[in-house]
UniProtKB/TrEMBL annotation:
Record InterPro entries: HAMP_dom (IPR003660), HATPase_C_sf (IPR036890), HATPase_dom (IPR003594), His_kinase_dom (IPR005467), HisK_dim/P_dom (IPR003661), HisK_dim/P_sf (IPR036097), Sig_transdc_His_kin-like_C (IPR004358), TCS_sensor_his_kinase (IPR050428)
TM region(s), chain numbering: 154-176
Protein name per the record: histidine kinase
Chief location: membrane
UniProt-annotated stretches for the region Disordered: 54-76, 96-123
SUPFAM superfamilies: ATPase domain of HSP90 chaperone/DNA topoisomerase II/histidine kinase, HAMP domain-like, Homodimeric domain of signal transducing histidine kinase
Keyword Chloroplast set for record: no
Catalyses which reaction(s): ATP + protein L-histidine = ADP + protein N-phospho-L-histidine
One GO cellular component, as annotated: plasma membrane
Entry EC number(s): 2.7.13.3
Keywords, sorted A to Z: Kinase, Membrane, Phosphoprotein, Transferase, Transmembrane, Transmembrane helix, Two-component regulatory system
Cofactor(s), names only, from the UniProt record: a divalent metal cation
Subcellular location, record wording: Cell membrane
Length: 474
């Protein structure tokens, strides 16, 4: 269980503390081992001296020499040994001790080196007894020098250890701070991303390092998050645009349908009131408005089917026949207009795989749009050509053309270049939007090039996929 203070400790301080603690444990273990080894070595040296004395000069082989007793002098130099000889009857025959402290000897002789205390102090002694025919001699050596040496070693190790720990702490702090610098960069990047900057990335580093693998993993995650946000934003934008288009579509459709209905209702009211005696003219007007409303409903149904992505009746279609029939129909409708068909040289035959009826509607709408929205003296030309992988149809006119704004919105539903919604030229504003939808359903492209006062050119390009090899040969 971790303490709250430890959990709130910054990582760099935690790592430095861990290094210092591990170093302290290592120094402590090393100090204990060295001190124990030195203490044991000094003790063994004292034991060796005691054993040599017990087996040599301290062994009782006769009456003790008189000159060994008493204070040190010319006849007996000072000695660090404590010597006591006891007769078999317990009489102390000899005792030599040049120090101020006397060891506390056990009652029974000790045959192995043993540590004992003192009678009048806390000093320790190492003693050993040897027994002969004339009694028992006990020799001892003070451990004061050994203890003092060990204590000085402990103090020295403590001072050196503190210095080493301070140096390790400072070095570890700078090393950890430098090592954690990439993590601070990750923290800064994460804060920037949290603030909304999804384009920020963690600096890439060597994948062989932990920070490198972390940075690559984070950058991959950030890329996915950015893509998800972008996809969500795009989906929301698309939903808003779709909703706006739907609202505009419903409003325009309601307006377009309301106008003929209002006209029909008005003529019916006039007929009921007897205000129009010419019944044929009245019925003709009602029939015209009903027909126009029927055409509008049919166009709306076509767009609804295309929006629902209903499958088309796909089969090889000869666009030369489609364009030729459209030109003949336009000439029959407007015999006084100059309408021509031009077939351009190109590889293969102008055939595509698609819905014949819908492709005829595409060319018919483009041609009808050119005839309806250009003056009577304007020329209309239909061009048919091929490329290596597509077939294109161009419908050009020499009319007034389109402005840049009109050209950008001409394929939108219910869009008219004349904002007053006049119907002098006819049409519901759905013809070109149907063209765009039908071409898109055939995986093609439709575009317009126009300048005000210089006419307009509508170009439809359809892929030649799915055709046999013979249709692609020049």
């Amino acid at each position: 269980m971790t303490m709250p203070g430890v959990r709130t400790l910054p990582l760099r301080f935690g790592l430095v503390l861990a290094v210092v603690l591990l170093t302290a444990v290592g120094l402590l273990a090393s100090g204990v081992a060295v001190t124990s080894a030195l203490e044991n070595s000094l003790t063994r040296r004292v034991d060796t001296q005691l054993e040599e004395a017990a087996q040599g000069w301290a062994r009782p082989l006769g009456p003790p020499p008189r000159e060994l007793a008493g204070e040190p002098g010319p006849a007996r130099p000072p000695s660090s040994f404590f010597v006591r000889t006891v007769a078999p009857d317990g009489t102390v025959l000899r005792q030599v001790n040049d120090g101020d402290v006397t060891p506390s000897l056990p009652d029974a002789p000790v045959t192995t080196p043993t540590t004992v205390g003192s009678d009048d102090g806390d000093q320790h002694w190492r003693v050993l007894s040897t027994t002969g025919s004339d009694g028992t001699t006990t020799v001892g050596l003070s451990l004061a020098e050994n203890d003092d040496t060990v204590q000085r070693l402990v103090v020295l190790q403590a001072l050196i250890g503190l210095g080493v720990l301070a140096a390790v702490a400072v070095a570890a702090y700078f090393v950890v701070r430098r090592s954690l610098r990439p993590l601070r960069e990750v923290e800064t990047t994460a804060a920037a991303i949290a603030g909304g900057d999804l384009h920020r990335r963690v600096p890439a580093r060597d994948r062989r390092t932990e920070i490198g693998r972390l940075s690559h993993a984070l950058n991959g995650m950030l890329a996915q998050i950015q893509q998800a946000f972008a996809a969500t934003a795009a989906s929301e934008d698309a939903a808003r645009r779709s909703e706006e288009k739907m609202r505009r579509f419903v409003a325009d459709a309601s307006h377009e349908l309301r106008t003929p209905l209002t006209t029909i209702r008005g003529f019916a009211e006039l007929y009921r009131q007897g205000a129009m005696p010419d019944t044929d003219a009245l019925m003709s007007r009602i029939e015209g408005e009903a027909s126009r409303m029927g055409l509008l409903v049919e166009d709306l149904l076509v767009l609804a089917r295309l929006d629902a992505q209903r499958p088309l009746d796909r089969r090889p279609v000869d666009l030369l026949a489609v364009c030729s029939d459209a030109v003949h129909a336009a000439r029959a409708t407007a015999p006084d207009r100059a309408i021509s068909l031009v077939v351009l040289d190109g590889p293969g035959t102008p055939e595509v795989v698609g819905d014949d009826a819908r492709l005829r509607q595409v060319v018919g709408n483009l041609l009808g749009n050119a005839v309806a929205h250009t003056p009577a003296d304007a020329d209309v030309v239909v061009r048919l050509g091929t490329t290596a992988d597509s077939v294109f149809v161009e419908v050009s006119d020499t009319g007034p053309g389109l402005s840049e704004h009109d050209a950008a919105h001409v394929f939108e539903r219910f869009y008219r270049a004349d904002t007053s919604r006049t119907r002098a030229s006819g049409g519901s504003g759905l013809g070109l939007s149907i063209v765009a939808a039908l071409v898109a359903a055939h995986a093609g492209r439709v575009s317009v090039e126009s300048m005000a006062g210089e006419g307009a050119t509508f170009r439809v390009e359809l892929p030649r996929e799915g055709l046999s090899g013979s249709a692609l040969e020049p």
